[in-house]
């Protein structure tokens, strides 16, 4: 990874003259009070390495007749300079060959020198950057599209199921009603069959009466016609046998009642109304159950897709342990971006940004006063563990600061001049170690 080995800044914004050697791995803190030039150091580095789009609107220090001067030595041997009236860019590689901004852009990550651009991005934009660098963006987008489509279908199905269930609940139900509507013609047919059977019974009863009358008359005829006794007795005996048979035929006859059928015929409309109401209720309940089954099936599909999303992110090469994506937002140790502490946001942002261009081994951080000293040490240790260089500012003059800026100078370097007057030879600077190094004016 390419890092910043040495840095000289003169007459840029509030900086009068600053020389420093940032710590290769870990945190280099530029401390000082407000309005002393701390942020100007980061702005100068961004301008030097990021190009003219990071050029300050007023790059020259107010009141200085000497133009801005930048001299940055990178760990790959490149030397980056901006000097002269127009602050033109000059890049020299280890072999003495010149290069331009395109060479710097090949390894300098834009967000590494402009971290607020990432910090202030929307949740969707942050997530898109992470998914792009771990290579699962397209697949995750497709899974999310499928999940949304299934969710919409399930939502619609659920609404219909609720409507059906509510409709079924509101329907009246008559437990005493038959399962199917009654047919008037069927009731009439049953009535006619009963009437026919009853008519046959009546015919038999009439025959019995006729035989009884004939028998009685014949007795009279026997008494009246003594002369015809033999014939009458024979006929009488025959009639007696017929009478016995007729009596046996009618002995167990029971007439069926048509009262229930007649009542059903009279009440057929009411009965059928109840039947139809019961059928409507049964159908509504069946429909509601069918939609519930569809709802549960879609829920299972959504669960399966979410499991695929989880597995996709679990198996992805994420830039930070505990970092993931849920519902299109970054989540770190279970917390979404707006619930993360400031230090957690910086750690997540730094981890993601360094993955964008792995060769860019440094990052600029402004206003680290949001971190307490313990958190600051933890963050610095994490940077060292990751082999990452961070140059940061902090409103402080404490021991945690690598250098302290006061009135545009590093404390201990007051009055130093970095650009040599014409005709003088620069014997070369004496570089510090990155931790409150003291340089004396005029000593190089």
UniProtKB/TrEMBL annotation:
Protein name: AAA family ATPase
Region (Disordered): 420-444
GO BP terms in the entry: double-strand break repair
Keywords: Coiled coil
Coiled coil (residue ranges): 215-315
Signal peptide: none
Cross-referenced InterPro entries: P-loop_NTPase (IPR027417), Rad50/SbcC_AAA (IPR038729)
Ranges for domain Rad50/SbcC-type AAA: 6-304
């Amino acid at each position: 990874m390419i890092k910043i080995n040495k840095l000289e800044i003169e007459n840029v914004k509030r900086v009068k003259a600053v020389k420093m050697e940032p710590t290769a791995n870990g945190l280099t803190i530029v401390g000082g009070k407000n309005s002393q030039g701390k942020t100007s150091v980061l702005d100068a580095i961004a301008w030097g390495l990021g190009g003219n789009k990071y050029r300050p609107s007023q790059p020259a220090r107010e009141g200085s007749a000497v133009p801005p001067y930048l001299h940055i030595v990178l760990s790959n041997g490149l030397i980056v300079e901006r000097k002269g009236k127009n602050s033109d860019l000059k890049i020299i590689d280890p072999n003495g060959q010149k290069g331009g901004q395109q060479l710097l852009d090949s390894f300098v990550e834009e967000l590494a020198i402009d971290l607020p651009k990432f910090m202030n991005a929307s949740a969707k934009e942050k997530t898109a950057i992470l998914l792009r660098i771990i290579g699962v963006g397209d697949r995750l987008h497709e899974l999310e599209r499928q999940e949304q489509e299934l969710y919409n279908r399930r939502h619609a199905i659920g609404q219909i199921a609720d409507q059906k269930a509510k409709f079924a609940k509101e329907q009246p139900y008559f437990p005493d009603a038959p399962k199917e509507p009654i047919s008037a013609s069927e009731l009439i047919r049953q009535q006619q069959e009963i009437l026919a059977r009853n008519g046959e019974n009546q015919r038999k009863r009439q025959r019995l009466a006729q035989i009884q009358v004939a028998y009685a008359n014949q007795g009279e005829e026997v008494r009246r016609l003594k002369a015809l006794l033999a014939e009458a007795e024979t006929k009488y005996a025959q009639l007696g046998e017929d009478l016995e048979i007729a009596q046996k035929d009618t002995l167990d006859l029971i007439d069926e009642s048509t009262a229930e059928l007649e009542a059903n015929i009279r009440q057929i409309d009411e009965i059928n109304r109840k039947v139809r109401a019961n059928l409507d209720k049964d159908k509504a309940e069946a429909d509601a159950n069918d939609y519930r089954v569809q709802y549960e099936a879609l829920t299972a599909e959504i669960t399966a897709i979410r499991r695929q999303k989880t597995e996709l992110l679990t198996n992805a090469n994420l830039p930070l342990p505990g970092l993931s994506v849920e519902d299109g937002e970054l989540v770190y140790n279970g917390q979404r971006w707006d619930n993360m502490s400031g230090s957690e946001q910086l750690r997540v942002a730094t981890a993601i940004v360094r993955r964008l261009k792995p060769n860019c081994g440094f990052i600029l951080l402004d206003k680290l006063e949001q971190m307490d000293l313990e958190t600051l040490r933890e963050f610095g240790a994490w940077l060292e563990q990751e082999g990452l260089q961070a140059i940061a500012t902090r409103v402080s003059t404490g021991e945690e600061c690598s250098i302290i800026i006061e009135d545009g100078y590093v404390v201990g370097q007051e009055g130093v001049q970095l650009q040599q007057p014409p005709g003088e030879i620069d014997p070369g600077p004496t570089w510090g170690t990155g931790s409150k190094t003291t340089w004396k004016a005029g000593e190089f």
